[in-house]
Specification:
By secondary structure, this protein is an alpha+beta fold. The protein contains three helices and seven strands, in the order αβββββββαα. The strands form two sheets. Strands 1-2-3-6-7 form a five-stranded antiparallel sheet. The chain has a two-stranded antiparallel ribbon with strand order 4-5. The two termini are 31 Å apart. It binds ligand K1U and zinc ion. The site of ligand K1U has 16 residues, from β1, β4 and α2.
């Protein structure tokens, strides 16, 4: 297992649409294990493969609160939102690709998701609360969508400019 470097805004890789996974191979299992390790190290509660530069439709999530709590790692391959509630929820979101920036986003409060597990079996889950928010945030990553896309143009441009400045400074150093 390995901790892989995170792709950070404004890298255009984050705007790629990820490709579906055909079969669960040992390489896919290693990628999922690396994603979990990278997510725990960050630390974060979710990660999409594109955030480590791999354009495959794979998401990892663990909502367990602290290091003392038992880990509950979840892996979703080819996740598809198949139902969303009319009711919405506003939740503060962050993103490992936009470090230390948090804003409230409104999304459907509950969803149903179809996905493939690491045994290659099709599964469905119903999610609400933070899990529903996190799954929608991660599925957006697979489609090249970032949570800042839901903010006002002013806020989105401000944060994008801030991260572009940092990237320019780092590439000159
Ligand atoms: O996809 C990502 O960039 C990960 C992101 C997931 C997410 C968080 C909140 C709402 C929606 C989606 C994060 O994990 S940001 C970091 C974070 O939320 C966190 C970090 C340490 C402890 C607890 C939470
Ligand atoms: Zn994110």
């Amino acid at each position: 297992m390995a901790i892989r470097p995170l792709v950070i805004l404004p890298d255009s890789v984050l705007r790629q649409v990820s490709a579906p996974v055909d079969t669960i191979t040992p390489e896919i299992k290693t990628l999922a294990a690396d994603m979990l390790e990278t997510m725990y190290d960050a630390p974060g509660i979710g990660l999409a493969a594109i955030q480590i530069g791999v354009p495959k439709r794979i998401v990892t999530i663990d909502l367990s609160k602290s290091d003392d709590e038992e880990k509950v790692p979840m892996v979703f391959v080819n996740p598809e939102v198949i139902w969303t509630s009319e009711e919405t929820n506003v939740h503060e979101e962050g993103c490992l690709s936009i470090p230390e920036y948090y804003e409230e986003v409104e999304r459907p409060a509950a969803i149903k998701l179809r996905y493939m597990d690491l045994d290659g079996k099709t599964q469905e889950i119903a999610a609400e609360g933070l899990l529903a928010t996190c799954l929608q945030h991660e599925v957006d990553h697979l489609n090249g969508v970032l949570f800042i896309d839901y903010l006002s143009r002013l806020k989105r441009e401000r944060v994008t400019k801030r991260f572009a400045k940092v990237a320019k400074r780092e590439s000159a150093a």
